[in-house]
Design brief:
Layout (H helix, E strand, L loop, with lengths): L1 E5 L9 H16 L4 E6 L2 H7 L6 E5 L5 H15 L4 E5 L9 E5 L4 H4 L6 H17 L2 E4 L2 H11 L6 E3 L14 H10 L7 E4 L8 H13 L7 E4 L7 H9 L6 E5 L6 H7 L2 E4 L8 H8 L4 E4 L4 H5 L4 E3 L4 H13 L1 H15 L4 H17 L1
Parallel strand pairs: 1-2, 1-4, 2-3, 4-5, 5-6, 6-7, 8-9, 8-11, 9-10, 11-12, 12-13
């Protein structure tokens, strides 16, 4: 079986999409030495990462930097020059793809919360992803919530949609080495305790309400450590950035910008607790990463996050500022609860594995290939 993989995001800062495809590639290479894989990349750094590592993998780079040229012409022409049985992508496939399409659709946030996206991007995704979903031989989602959502929203037959849970990379584990912890904290100007949030700065992550809840507690005299928000500015981020000054906590809320993956385990391990009140997630890797590092978590009580966190974290209504504030106040004050959630989180994280995700994804490829 010949599998072509859209890996054009590798080497970029596209957060979740990069995390997904890089871990999937590594895990497929670990479990499958029989089938042939071609990775289609854009960034020169991606070639350095993969070239020559596995005998059954090859790497090809696109010539076109234009997104539209790549989308409409490059993949289709490449797949005609270098035929594949399966084309595996995230969300979008080219309209004239000659191979059988398997697409990973992580969530439909652009359908449910279009106001949290750029208008042009939202409109484009509604057209192209719906078209890809209907053309695909099979769709992979990363939660039961997303699976049901794709089936209902796009009218897809249930047997054509498979849920494959994601996982946190093995590098996410409790960091106890003092020199490592101190070096990473110093890199971001952190001293002492802090509350951590991780995710790109965009409306869907609900940072405005998080900062408002934090400011409410500070104004009421609650003693809290600083709030550290890790992630690059993605889109429509101005309101989130301005919230710190709007709610009078600009000296206590720290936006780090983009942080490389290698620094995140130490940041998670250093945090007093982790808070992630995102409105909408297809899976929600940051809370799982935090739990795997032994950090207690607060998450929203809807979409996929209850599946990921279970009873190992505090769940709150993401639209309720008082609920977010109360959860932070409680977890900040209750050391026994933090210890309890820390242990539960470590156990919950063991339920997820990239090796299993790759095995289940390969099963989908083989099923589609045999049809």
């Amino acid at each position: 079986m010949r599998v072509a993989i859209d890996a054009h995001t590798v080497g970029t800062q596209l957060a979740g999409n990069v995390t997904y495809i890089t871990n999937m590639i590594e895990s497929l290479a670990e479990i499958d030495q029989k089938n042939e894989y071609t990775l289609y990349v854009m960034e020169p750094h991606a070639i350095e990462i993969y070239q020559g590592r596995w005998s059954n993998f090859r790497v090809r780079r696109f010539w076109h930097r234009s997104r539209m040229l790549r989308y409409f012409y490059s993949f289709s022409s490449q797949l005609r020059l270098h035929p594949a049985d399966i084309f595996f992508c995230q969300f979008n496939a080219p309209p004239f793809c000659p191979a059988k399409i398997v697409t990973a659709i992580h969530d439909l946030a652009f359908e449910h919360l279009p106001e949290t996206f750029n208008k042009r991007s939202s409109a484009q995704m509604k057209v192209t992803i719906r078209r890809t979903a209907r053309k695909a031989k099979h769709i992979i989602t990363c939660s039961e919530y997303s699976r049901n959502d794709v089936i209902e929203a796009y009218g897809i037959l249930p047997e054509k949609v498979t849920n494959v849970y994601l996982a946190a990379n093995d590098s996410y584990k409790p960091v106890r080495d003092a020199s490592t912890l101190n070096a990473v904290r110093a890199r971001y100007g952190l001293d002492g305790e802090f509350i951590l949030g991780v995710g790109s700065v965009q409306p869907r992550k609900n940072l405005v309400r998080l900062i408002q809840a934090y400011g409410m507690l500070i104004k009421a005299g609650t003693e809290l450590p600083p709030l550290v928000l890790v992630g690059k500015n993605a889109w429509l981020f101005d309101e989130s950035i301005a919230a710190a000054s709007n709610y009078g906590v600009e000296d206590r809320v720290h936006f780090t910008g983009f942080v490389p993956d290698e620094d995140l385990p130490a940041l998670y391990s250093s945090a007093k607790f982790f808070v992630y009140p995102s409105f909408f997630e297809g899976f929600g890797l940051p809370p799982l990463e935090a739990m795997q590092c032994g950090t207690p978590v607060i998450v929203c009580d809807r979409t996929s996050l209850p599946e990921v966190v279970g009873d190992a974290g505090i769940q709150v209504d993401p639209y309720s500022v008082p609920a977010i504030a109360e959860a932070m106040k409680r977890l900040n004050a209750d050391g026994k609860l933090r210890d309890e959630l820390r242990l539960k989180g470590l156990e919950q994280a063991k339920k997820f594995s990239w090796r299993r995700a790759a095995r289940e994804t390969l099963d989908v490829f083989e099923k589609v290939h045999s049809e």
